[in-house]
Amino acid sequence: MARPTALSGFPEWLPGEQFVENTFVERVRRVFELHGFAPVETRAVEPLDQLLRKGETSKEVYTLRRLQAAPEGDEKENLGLHFDLTVPFARYVLENAGRLHFPFRRYQIQKVWRGERPQEGRYREFRQADIDIVDRDSLALHYDYEVPVVAAEALAALPIPQVTVHTSNRKLAQGFYQGLEIADPPAVLRVVDKLDKIGPEKVATELRDTLGLSDAQATACLSLAGIATPDPSFAERVRALGVKSDLLDEGLHELTVVMEAANGLVPGLLLADLSIARGLDYYTGTVYEAKMRGFEKAGAVGAGGRYDNLAESGSDRFPGVGISLGITRILGLLFGAGALAASRQVPACVLVAVTSEETRAASDSVAAALRRRGIATEVAPAAAKFGKQIRHADRRGIPFVWFPAQAPDGPHEVKDIRSGDQAAADPATWEPPAIDRVPEIRTP
Amino acid sequence: MARPTALSGFPEWLPGEQFVENTFVERVRRVFELHGFAPVETRAVEPLDQLLRKGETSKEVYTLRRLQAAPEGDEKENLGLHFDLTVPFARYVLENAGRLHFPFRRYQIQKVWRGERPQEGRYREFRQADIDIVDRDSLALHYDYEVPVVAAEALAALPIPQVTVHTSNRKLAQGFYQGLEIADPPAVLRVVDKLDKIGPEKVATELRDTLGLSDAQATACLSLAGIATPDPSFAERVRALGVKSDLLDEGLHELTVVMEAANGLVPGLLLADLSIARGLDYYTGTVYEAKMRGFEKAGAVGAGGRYDNLAESGSDRFPGVGISLGITRILGLLFGAGALAASRQVPACVLVAVTSEETRAASDSVAAALRRRGIATEVAPAAAKFGKQIRHADRRGIPFVWFPAQAPDGPHEVKDIRSGDQAAADPATWEPPAIDRVPEIRTP
């Protein structure tokens, strides 16, 4: 067959890069668990009606079909791949409500799929790391600042540029539009959400021409979206625009509480940025977009918000708040910029040489002794000349080559192939330098 | 909306079970890395022609389609979800051959999907943990025993019943059938593969009636499949059947080498079991089926073998050998039998009580101090009565509740809610017993 080629939008890493991703996932998981978030994984598929019930996302869904299904049949099995981890989690909460304790804190690190035409570096398969807190009936406001604080601590555990969480509140924007007597606030929100992409002039045009706003309304909407402050002073600037509504007051209050508490815990973490809207329809209050320093133009590396109505069934209601970190997107940006790499392509710290195929068992037993003490070790593939065996280690970045004793009581020797230093060593006690034990992540 | 229900064949765990799965994955990964296997992940999708080129599996594939795709179009994008990790890995090796060093050792832990009608406890989505070693042009035989030895070490790191690796060799069976002058050996292999499911009589009938074997041929095939020995004595028993062919000799030699070396390294690990055939067409030599003690009837919890021709392109050929551990299957069996559970449903070891919402920041700061020293901690959801806050911890299995100082210089106290013991403690130095730090896996 012909040599296969990559599929656009479906990233795959080389082993060194995969090691970096695994390390990221492990560190993020560790921080989430330190904060008491419990692990959940959901199946990759959801019934289509579940995926589509909050609108706006239908274009992005991959649907599934069994290859051998009858051409017409199986309509009851209308399944699609999940496009985020929030919708499946809301379904999981409803399905298991009787077996979970609320407020329920969970993290979820999985791949998601979006059936988009690949363009502008968009992924069709990517890994997200989410935390969410849901409660029954109502959810305390303090979780709205806890979530970005935990996310920030997770990101701070990674060797990446600093991340700022741009934060706004849907009630604030929606209340402001209502105060302006705009008929369809969600439609305005969707247009304003394009500010980053198309700029203020085109947004103004679209607000006037497509949504029928007056010049004054459009100008006020753009003025609101132009407000960004690192502290709660955004509230005065909003009030200076002279618009009034109860929902606006509620939004201003919530965002003020969130800004003060989060920046009290992690100074400089949040930026009140009233241009933030978030495309997904399920958010109802606080919304977040995390941007990485130096990569602001690349869009959000994390996003989320509060959703008071996503998980409801009959009279049961489970409001939630959460944030999703774009692991694949962060890695893609930093690998692309040459800003992240592993110090070697394989986990092995030691290659045990093989003197002859007849004595391979002796090399196996040295390797076993080293592994028992946690030293990752492989045995040479063949009893080639030692020079060739050393090259095998060198090409993979394995720092040490072990030469087993040539006689039952003879000395073993180990060579640091970087310095060329070679010395006698005992498989039961020899230790590599701590820095060589596992591959390091380098940020050149 | 109505309360959602589970989808048959797509297992989802509660958080305590997910914790067990995560721990399994972490331990298996650790052993694989100790043996120098490098991490690889492949995308979930492959072009359909790639998935179907080795036959016999077409019925199991889920195909993908963008919801908004034109009814006819997009045929160039014929994608399906991978049904194992071997076919994608072979594709990955061909695609990246110029950037990998051979022999290449990789592990891969991911979910796979099979579009089967759910039945007999079969999963449609499940996690596998694979190791494979591939080389260029030819692959040394010692890897055929290294692979089950590493797999056994990984399984031995898990709190599960002992696993035995039933091992055979395709050349042995195929050479035997050729020696019997049977026209279509692979067809016989496929029928014999059903021995476990339908029993010897039905296999004999099918061999005679469907494949046209003589009574003597069918009897000889069943005699071969009846041979199982814990040592290399299977070879004499095969020779006693009086069938001769070069390929049979080659198979006997390879299986003898593999049995002797593997059982030398891990006594009792391998059982030569000539009934093992493996359904997938890509195996060409050694084949493995791992069975868990007490769950033999449930089928294999691991499987694999050598594939000399799976990864080829033009004149490039990358023979490989590997084994796949069925993580989801193992967990499903043991959860189902009530043989595995987590000691608590959440990672938190400590719940910090909140005296009043005004002093929540004081509780947050105790939690931060404990987390800095690696103690998983959550803060109470609300400043309820302490009795209610203790019940919050109790329901989740959180062993300790922390009561922050009531005055700036006052004493903090911590209560073990199992014993009721309460004592003064300093957030900067207090340590929980080691056994309480993280949830334990229990095997009741």
TrEMBL record, chains A, B:
- Name the UniProt key words of this record, in alphabetical order: Aminoacyl-tRNA synthetase, ATP-binding, Cytoplasm, Ligase, Nucleotide-binding, Protein biosynthesis
Q: Which PROSITE patterns match?
A: AA_TRNA_LIGASE_II (PS50862)
InterPro entries in the record: aa-tRNA-synth_II, aa-tRNA-synth_II/BPL/LPL, Anticodon-bd, Anticodon-bd_dom_sf, His-tRNA-ligase, HisRS-like_core, HisRS/HisZ
Q: Per its UniProt entry, what is the enzyme's top EC class, as one word?
A: ligase
Residue span of region Disordered = 411-444
Which reactions does this protein catalyse? tRNA(His) + L-histidine + ATP = L-histidyl-tRNA(His) + AMP + diphosphate + H(+)
Molecular function terms from GO:
ATP binding; histidine-tRNA ligase activity
Q: Where L-histidine is bound, by residue?
A: D84, L85, T86, R114, Q128, D132, R278, Y282, Y283
Q: GO biological process annotations for this chain's record?
A: histidyl-tRNA aminoacylation
Q: Which domain of life is it from?
A: Bacteria
Gene Ontology cellular-component terms for this entry are: cytoplasm
Which Enzyme Commission numbers does its entry carry? 6.1.1.21
Domain Aminoacyl-transfer RNA synthetases class-II family profile, by residue range, is: 28-347
User: What's this protein's family per the entry?
Assistant: Belongs to the class-II aminoacyl-tRNA synthetase family.
Subunit and partners:
Homodimer.
Record-linked NCBIfam families: hisS
- Write the protein's name: Histidine--tRNA ligase
